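Escalated from tier 1: flavin mononucleotide holo job.
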Amino acid sequence: MGLRSDRPARLPAVIQGGMGVAISGWRLARAVARLGQLGVVSGTALETVHARRLGDGDPGGHLRRAYAAFPEPTLAERVLGRWFLPGGRASGQPYRDVPMFLLQSPQALRELTVLANFAEVHLAKIGHDGPIGINYLEKIQLPTPDALYGAMLGGVDYVFMGAGIPAALPRLLDKLALGDEVSYRIEVAGASGGESHAVRFRPPDVVGRRLGLARPGFVAVVSSSTLASFLAKDPATRPDGFVVEHHSAGGHNAPPRGPATSDERGQPLYGERDEVDLGKIAALGLPFWLAGGCASPEGLVRARASGAAGIQVGTAFALCLESGLSPDLRERVLASSRSGETEVLTDGRASPSGYPFKVLQLGGTLSDPAVYSARRRRCDVGLLRTPYLRPDGGIGYRCPSEPVGAYLRKGGSRAETAGRICLCNALLSTAGLGQQRAAGPEPPVVTMGDDLDRLVRVLGEHGAWSAADVVAYLLGDQGGAQAPIAVPAPQLSAASGLSKEVVGR
Ligand SMILES: Cc1cc2nc3c(=O)[nH]c(=O)nc-3n(C[C@H](O)[C@H](O)[C@H](O)COP(=O)(O)O)c2cc1C
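Tier 2 regenerated the structure:
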């Protein structure tokens, strides 16, 4: 594989972090890329996001325009035939359900997944020649090969993955780029070490032929030098770079190291051991970016002084005008911050993934005990379901946020269900795509980083802000919003051949 262009090798100083569900969509990623930095779309639940946008009549026609560029037009026609409602749903009409992923998912779902990932990247890349990334969670395994292939068909430049140990990704990307069949190992709870379960994916099944595609760079999101070293030591698992995320970041956080302890509000207690040894990360010789509470010009300078190529920023972009956060929620978040009322809780219980999750305490959302207890539990998106071995030897799927009785019948424990939020339904609602129920729309939940109030003070002085305002603020006097910062030569020369290809755009 040769360099994709002969432009000088550069890495972005600012990565706009991938934010699910649909908070960092193509509009935000494209706006950031046009400013010369790296825009990242969230790949989480994109199939449902697109099915629902199609159910709303595809306002603006963006999805249909992108689908028209898909290399296999009959696949796009089948997806439109299933989910597109010209003129959109009638008022109060629920969205058409998307089937849930299984070890062998229905073909209609796989086609929707490939197409949605393709289109989100395709749209993000229009109007500039900068790179675009896509972000997935290792914890959500079943859609991964289909989603990756769709994004690669769209020309994605970087893949980011956190929330787990993404050791299989480098080889998976190598094979998909060649158009080879892949088998992606799936963790099944209760299965013995000898058993192996996998999702298989054959590129010709969706595009009718074997295509050679550019191999995107792979950036692993880590919160410890131990995990970074483990991934870097074997060429088969070595990523092309790292995002090193601190537990102050919005979204999911790594749990504290060592024995679990929490404060009186159930927040996990972090200590010295959770501060990442950046010297050890730098010594691995791969480019890295710092994330979590570093969204300031000083944060960028400090990051670069530690050997990082720059910073990854979430919260500041989540609240900007191009973000997919519903405008009504954005206004409420800003108002609550300005009145000094915000509180961001690191909730050890909320996420069915088991990882701590930052929850902004905001009335009318699931952080409000009255809203939480009024919601009837259901599981119909199912991305955070865990496959488990049933007593009859078959594979079942369960989620601690599903109805308690169903979870117990599947062998889960009651203790696991306490305080869980259905993040699938809630986060879709946060992006304005909540399912309509008999009792009303699904309630949202808002995640923000610990740095929220400072950012609102700095960026929100005159009201709402744009992605360009965030980038200009972060770069400060370091060369203006248009100019990505060249990475010092030693880092690039230490990087793998693949990462050179990646950054060579
Ligand atoms: C609203 C929101 C959603 C996020 N969703 C994801 C996600 O789906 N996957 C992920 O790897 N990181 C996610 N993050 C983390 C960001 O990508 C980024 O690393 C983090 O926000 C950086 O810290 P900061 O919030 O202090 O800027 C999310 C962050 C926010 C604020």
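The mean pLDDT is 92.
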